Amino acid sequence: MSFFDAIRSVFSQYVGFSGRALRSEYWYWVLFTVLVSISTSILDYALFPFSNVSPLNSVTNLVLLLPGLAVSARRLHDIGRSGWWLLLAVVPLVGWIILLVWTATRGDATANRFGPPPQPTSGSPAVA
Description:
By secondary structure, the protein is mainly α. The chain has helices at 3-12, 23-47, 55-78, 94-104.
């Protein structure tokens, strides 16, 4: 799945917590959110240089929160885990490391309780 296909897929399932997500879809989404966050931080600094508030970055992060949670849950579904495991993120360090390993793990090649394996778009090779 290409970068733009992944972003399009995540936005088309804005709050879709069911189904499964490819590793490439998840990691391209992470890259997208980091790039957008850096861009809005720079814009905030340029537009509000003497202020401690960052309204553009705050609004952007709120807009990207739900699709980020949804694609994360779908990524966990791809390895056979419930989206509720995202609550590990509240456990400092250990929870983050576990979630990092799980999101980098290859997905199930066959159907699991969350559905069939996701299919990559635009003819790219499958990287579950």
